[in-house]
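REVIEWER CHECKLIST
Item 1: Sequence provided? yes
Item 2: Single chain? yes
Item 3: Sequence as submitted:
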Amino acid sequence: MSILFFLFLISKSGLKAQSNFTPLNEDYSNLIERYEIKSGSLSSLHTNIKPVRRKDLVKLTTELESDEKANLSKTDLFNLAYLQNDSWEWLENEKLPQSDSKKPLWTHLFRKKSDFYSTQNKDIDFHVSPIFQFTFAQDNLAKETPYTNTRGIEVRGTLNKKLGFYSMLTENQIVYPEYIREYGRAYNANPYEGFTKIPNADSSKYLADFFSARGYITFQAIKSVQIQFGHDKNFIGSGIRSMILSDFSAPYLHLKVTTNVGRFQYMNLFAQMINKQIPLAADGTEQLPPKYFSLHHLSVNIGRNLNIGIFESIIFGKRQVGFDINYLNPVIFLRFAEGHLGSVDNSIAGLNFKYNFKRHFSLYGQFVLDEFNVKYFKQDGWWAKKYAAQIGGRYIDVFGIKNLDFQTEYNLVRPYMYSHNSTYSNYVNYNLPLAHPLGANFTELLLIGRYQPTKRLFLNFTTMLTQQGKDSNIINWGGDILRNYNFARPFDYGNEIGQGRTINTKFYQFGASYMIAHNLFADLKVQNRNINLSGDADDKKNMIFSVGLRWNTSQRQFLF
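Item 4: Structure as written out by the authors:
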């Protein structure tokens, strides 16, 4: 049914030019947030929904260049030119020459700074870029030397100015640092990736060998409605974390409908995810069963500075007919549809906000509610008082120092949040949390400083302090969202954040990146991670040094 609906929309597609999306990574997101703050006014991007369209980002950056009140530094102008050159197909004719390479290779290669090969005419806009990353590390806790070896290709463009397309393919071999291996063993999955081949996962020969692919098409159904269909990820929020939907889990098949009307943006997301908690047959021939996800998010700009969004989502599975078409309605209240069906699906709702002011500051936050019953919600420590909250802020050009930015963020998640009594309905895709990497039953403080002293040098320092209550093999204290919340729960009342065996994590990271050429970076990173588990006499101290080179790809962030 959803496929028929999708094909109908294609047949009715209008004549508007199509735009695919910017990369979804922390570095790109920080630049977008910084320059929206510098603009002094919330833009039509609605940056709480990421990734954003390349077309919209180029519009923001070109308008900002002519804004005298923005007080842009030479480094800012370099960054704006970088963002524009990365999406040069949306530049006006007079700005196009800035994206040209000074030394094309064999006439047709590297004609543009951002593309290995590109061509553009009235019928097609086509871009091809290689992907490469090699990182070498030292980890005092790992028996084997960690490294990353990634090779791939990225293709994007438009056909007849009506249909946009994107595809990314990579082949990867990674030996992770020890703490990431431990996370992978606990969740039986590797962060961000989904399927991997892991021979001898419990030995020193740990190697994640996997092929990664993402791809989608986009088109404009009518002037105000854009459609995306394919395998990719999404992120909701302006913070480092998202309590609503993050990019931490594996890519998933989805249909996304985004409607922009004036100050309003309405996003509908319909997705098929993977329930890896259902065991395969002994011979491994059975297909992993799907689970389904539907989300509505309404965002509105109030005045020049305040954005407020509300959302609802539902995750479900084990239907004889697959995706329940009752949840395809883009405007209905999903909780009503769920109740009307007599279902026990997992419904989550909440809100997010962002307030930018004085061209230097931004406050943002989220509140997510997983369960609400007036009769019990006021009871002290009721187990189903499940909610998550976030509050954060950014200060750019700190104390007048150009391109020195500071960000702080506090997150908390109640016990049993995101979990369910069915593996088809927990807030999980391919065994990985759809929101925060830590799952539930924790508090977290993040402090990040970013400094760009010269055009091509990027420095950052990150501090993460967390306290989480860990489950035992017997008792479910509400931290592991893969577990059935009715299984081995010790009591119904008196539950509090951090219950169980307390684990305190202190994570410090210094990183430096130098842009050698467009999207070609040399990276240096130092990480110190200390774990204190109640009952243990000594802390577990982890020191990791890494150096690497990457081209047309971002650094993997394992901040947990």
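Item 5: Key structural point noted by reviewer: The chain is about 15% helix and 45% strand.
Item 6: Recommendation: ____
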